[in-house]
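Contributing new records

If you add data, match the layout below exactly. Sequence lines come first and carry their own label; structure lines follow with theirs. Keep one chain per record. Anything else will be rejected by the validation script.
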Amino acid sequence: MNAKPLVNARGIGLQIGEQVILRDISLQLETGKIVSLIGPNGAGKTTLVRVILGLIQPDQGTIERQANIVVSYLPQKLALQPVMPITVKRFMELNIRSNDKSIEAALHEAGVARLTHAALQSISGGELQRVMLARCLLRNPQLLVLDEPDQGMDPTGLQVLYELITDIRDRYQCGILMVSHDLHLVMASTDQVVCLNQHVCCTGHPESISEHPEFLQLFGKPVSGLAVYTHHHDHKHNLHGDVVND
């Protein structure tokens, strides 16, 4: 018997004025599964995420969530106030019950332990994404929602990110919803790809989606190694692109 989904969205619709934002969208998020939500700019991806999180109420459809589900959310952007400097450690402590050991472990898992005492405003965009991811892990989430976590990263950094997200799924046995307009995040380890353009154009495993007519109409013929991440190494990189030993 299958376990109850973490989130079960059925027939979701949302309209603002005359503009249809979402139309008849159904989606299930399950424990231990990675779902990648892709689509062009303006497809409604972030809006759908906010509906799933309960931040926006849809006009149509239903959202069922597991009782007392613990959700961590990594938004697209974090607005930093340069006149209010704060260290990475202090940022990790904001509004979350934690201790130095758990903070250190989360930063280490995200690959940014060396930034513990750095000023948050001084770190790069890619480093900030990883700090925010580490903060998400402090909650031991059952569902991790990542809205374009690839921002500010080069191709090598993206490869490390893919591996990290898969490791997080395996370690925490959580469900992951990952959002992107960039085909780089449609990776081989994703269990399901949902292609969105106000409605669900197509859904399935990356290899099958990449040949779907509606996918091809939106994105064109995928370039090898770009649309579906299948690249393999006999070595690993750290976050800065250096080769490291196991």
